[in-house]
Amino acid sequence: MTKKITILLFSIVILGVSKYVYDVHFNYNFKEISKNKVYKSGVIPPENIATYIEDHQLKSIIDLRFPRSKDKINNPEIPDELTAEKRAVEQLEGVNYFNLGTDQVPTQETVDEFLEIMDDPFNYPVLIHCYHGVGRAQMFSALYRIEYEGWTNQEAREQTRLLLKGSSFDEGASKGDYLINYKSRAQN
Question: What does pTM read for this prediction?
Answer without folding.
Answer: 0.84
